[in-house]
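Minutes, structural biology subgroup

Action item carried over from last meeting: produce the structure token record for COR domain-containing protein (Pinctada imbricata). EB confirmed the sequence was re-checked against the source entry. Recorded below for completeness.
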Amino acid sequence: LTDFAGQLIYYTTHQTYLTSRGLYLLVFNLALGLDGVVEDEDLYPGKNQHRHMIDFLEYWIAMIVTYARGEHSNFPKIILIGTHRDKIRNENEIRKIKDGIQDRFNDLITSSQLVLRDDLFIDARNMSDETRTTIRRVILEEGMRYKEFGERVPSSWIALQEKLIELKEKRQIIVHLDVIRKLNSELKIPLKNEELEVFLKFLHNMGYVLYFDSPNLRDKIILDPKVVIDAMRSFITCERFVLQFWKKRSFNQMRRSGKVQVSHILEVLEEKRLATLSDNTYSAHMLGIMIKLDLICVPVIYNKGQRVSPDFCLVPCMMNVIVPQVPFELFNREKALTITFSSDEILPPAIFNRLVCSCLSCWEIFEGHFYNGLVVLRSGRFHLIEMKRDIKRIIVTFGHIKSAKRPDAQWCLAMKMFLKATIHKILAIYSVALRSTITCDSSDIDDLKDDAKADVS
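Output recorded by EB:
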């Protein structure tokens, strides 16, 4: 059982704990309704200070669907529990809330995956035994639908897991794969190499360890996932705690733009080392884990067909969460060109963040317009690039600073090619398909429309 305590640090690291074998309960306040304003600071990335109940449901469902996706469709199960039912006198309001949730998420998640029932709308302050029994029964019923329910595991798995627990109790938080192989060899019936990999993936899916079968990550296993959160805290918590480990200039740059030098993050991780590795690769491995979990984004940069190691990265949770309430008009939208990348399913926010990070390797932020979910960049003297996202789309608009002019056609064409090539590389990380649609009313740049509604992936 994991309690995130409602703090910003934990909102940025949820994916560390989300697994395909989890059963998720989302608890929300019925009395507020779906459009009710939730008064809380910093909790929901990408929205202005007026965040609504439906925004929180959307955030959590998007996170679970993105990072807990498994091999089986309609899983993992998400159970919605509404509280404060006693505050609602009109049953039509209950129906309105239920219909609103179904309408909002019908195209994003199957009805069998989202468990929405009237008997789970409750008065939490006066719960009867019948209500408690209903909640327990629903949890058990939905849990039993998992193919893994009642799964048997080899006794040697249990023996090896106990050895890993002993290492964890000795504060050996990160261990080399060779150490686990040695422990395995000491068992009465050792696991074969392929069985050992299945065992580690099983522990990962159960949320016990972090193990990724990826280049540069597969040779180490994190026995306590909480260490990743503690590592993130070392450079995103309040300033007075961080500055003792962080260069003032770099810290301020990160707080202002979310962008920071890779070398500085490695330095902070090394200064506040949370685990020891014999080959002194702790900082590099922890950085790799954070990138894998989308806690940190690095740009996708290629030079002559070869991937280039970036010298900076983006820390999305440090981007400004307060988007201006009044839309700012930096260019004439009637003369602008817009490319929309859309998906039929929930779009992982990390795709947008990685795209923004890659664009930052080429262009600068314009007049501080850098928010979580909305970014404006400047190209040359006159061109602006506005990038924003919602739950299913990335919308990129090209404009000219001088409102009477249209953006240059050749520049727009080059930008379109860059964006599509970059997104194509990013999509290789995620199992998401995107379409691109181009809209503009300029006859000067009609050639940009030749592949409207093209498949990017």
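Discussion: The domain at 8-144 is CATH 3.40.50.300 (Rossmann fold).
Next step: EB to file the record with the rest of the batch.
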